[in-house]
Every structure is written in structure tokens, then in C-alpha cells.
Amino acid sequence: MPFLLAGGAFLLFGTITGTNTHTKKMIKDHNGDKPFRRAILRDRNGDLTKEWYVEYYAWDEVLDGLVRKRIKVSMSFQTKKARVHEANKIIADTNELLEKGYYFKREVVSDETSILTECENDLVRCLDKVLSIINTTLKPKSVGTYQSAINKLKDYAGEHILIIQEFTDKDVIKFRDHLLTTLGNTSRTANNTIIHLNTLYRYLKDRVTIPVNSFKTRKLKQAVTTKNIAFTDRDREAVGRYFSFLLLHRTCLYRCLQDGPL
Question: Residue limits of the Core-binding (CB) domain (predicted)?
């Protein structure tokens, strides 16, 4: 497997920061002739207060050249030894992929006719289709979240087909009302469901010519809750009284020690 040194004619810069998840987008080149540059650690001169990262170059079919990628090394590793150890694992995993011929392939996207025709202009099926296209670029938890939002829309539609060209912002409001009244979702959950569908619709709109995104609507106001408040006012008063007593007790003890035994 050949690889290019710095300054090679094919170097193109397109930095992607993040964890090692973007290497999952790579596919294997069975011919084994794609150039690359091995992963190395950029440790910011050993400064633990700065973000370290692993840098490598892989072939990108869209750019038709090498593209630089960066993988962050978590700053949760507080010692140099621990951070270097973590970086070495990332480097080993990345270099293994590069040496096996993995590279970034041009995403195969269904054209407008095939998506809309295949899904018969059914909004639910179109969103399902676009999720199946992009799911390899998402974390499993994110895929589940988007699928849950689609399932809610599917349950709402029932036997009725939601024609994508006829689905308006008023239909979105009706769907949101369904989430609140029929499913008993909170305002926050309903807002999140609409946001997730809005994101999927944007992915779909990148691929086909469809109407303006109706899911881009104003959020509901969320009820104020004390669920995530660590201390109530009463708790804070009790803590304040405790520390006042503790301070007084320590002051008296200190004076007794200064005065000597009784």
C-alpha cells in the first residue's frame, strides 16, 4: 500500500474534528492502490491544557485526492501517560484501516425520481428512505432517535398516506397536538420529535425537489420544572444554617485551644 509524504501533489485539506466515529464512513479498496499518510499524534508540545489530536490523510473519492482528518484525544485523560496511551490506540486502529486500503468513497445518493417514485410521494416512506441512506454516518443511538420520530408520524398517519407535496405547517401543528393529547407527550418531547423530523426533512430536501420544510415551526413553551434542580430554597437555607453552626463551633474550639485547658 503506497502512502504519500508531506508536500505530495495530491494533498487537499478538509479537516474533520471529532472522535474516531468518522473512520466508520470509510470503505475498503480491494485493489489496494489508494495513497494515504499514516496517523500521527499532535500533542501540542505536551501541553495538557490544550486539545491533543491524531492527524492522518486518507483518499477521498469526492475530492479525488488526500484529505486531512483529525481525531480528538479526550481531555478527560489528565496525565501525559494516559493521554499518550489513548492516542496510541487511536493511531493503531486508524493505521490498520489505512494499511488495509480503506478510504472515503463518494456517497451513493438515490436521485430525485427514484426516491419519490419508489416511496410514491409518501412522506413517512420518504423519511424512512433518507434515514436508510444516511444511517451509516450516524451513531446507533441517533438512528434510534430518528426512527422513533418517524414511527410516531407513521402511527399518526395510520392508513392515510401523507402526500409530501401536500403536507403543510398546519398538518405539523395537528401532528404535534396528537403528540400532546393522544400520546401524552410533554412539550419538550413534542418539540424534540418535530426537531428530529425537521432534520430528516432537510436531508431529504438536499436530495429531491420538495416543498418548504413544514417541520420548521415555532417551538412550544416548556413548563418550568424543578426536576433537575439540585437544591430547593428550603434545602439551601438548611445548608446555610449548618455551615454557620460549623463556623461558630470551629471558632469556639480554636479559642479554647488558645486559652489552654480549663
Answer: 117-205
